[in-house]
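Moderator note: this is an archived Q&A kept for reference. The question asked for a predicted structure of one protein chain; the sequence and the answer are reproduced below.
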Amino acid sequence: MTRIIIEEDHFLKIVPVVLDPATPEAHRLAVADFFSHDEPDFLGWCGRLQQRLGGLYPAQVIFAADEADLAAKIGDADGVVVESFRIDDAVLAAAPRLAVVHKFGTITTNIDLEACARRGIPVSTLRRVVNVAVAEQACALMLALAKRIGEFNGVVEEAALRKAGLRVRPRQPHYIGYSNFAGVTGLKTLLGATLGIVGFGEVGREVARRARAFEMEIVYFQRTQLAAAVERELDVRYLPLDGLMEQADYILVQLPSNDKTRGLIGRDALSRIKPGAVLIDVARPELIDHDALVEALQAGRLGGLGLDVLYSEPADPAEPLLRYRDRNVILMPHTAVASRANALRDVETLCVNLWRAITKKRGRC
């Protein structure tokens, strides 16, 4: 039976339901429930895809918890799917059957491409539609906060405007137009503003592509600075975290959650933030220290906050952040990935890529 080793990831837990008939029923039903609001016949969708994957389905799908676990399990693998785990010559040497290395994304710095080429092992990549959707959400939050859309949505009657502390000026068409007749302040334009991206991975780069269309300047921080040629290609500039917090008008926090990143945006970082800057997190809430974030809001230092992820989901009714919903703060119920159709497209592309590479190698043998 075909054997696929996969780096453990919550989205990749969909794959065994598609490929491995030995997947426990509880796993199958949990994934089907995950899709149910957008694809009520998820298991039927799996069956239709399985019919297209003769030579790959049925397969044994095994997860690797870390790189050591991957090395221990890869010996008789036909395919391997990784997001962050390293694939080097030593790993490849231990996998004589390997027909394909698949990156769950597009950035292949964790894969030794030359070693794969020497052994004739193709490397597949996947521009994940889910990542594009998350990037769109980040941009939507950035725009909505710049224009104060959430705060003033529906505040259009004179009484509501006056309740909001605004003065409705009279019409004087002979002398001037009537735009922003209530005198809403703090409205911003993205043109020429600086976007600071903390964590310049798959989603960060998708956001940067879109921010360039708004003619923003893009700076980034991550553990390892990119090569100068890559920075020029992507039209971005590196700053240490302190410098980014001090210079950016909009700050996107987009990192994986681990011991080194949890609480990275804490009191010190938030104390350096440019007054009036907008902070956005569509990745993990724990990247931003909760208490420090509440303090920054209380102090009025932030010009806006957009969170797609909350510190508890659903939110605790006692969550202090909820007190700021009627201000320039947008709190979303973890919807950045958008329609489940995005995840289905990603899983389908991944499985088809594996099928093509594995059946092609078998056809040569």
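Archived answer notes: The CA atoms of residues 116 and 355 lie 18 Å apart.
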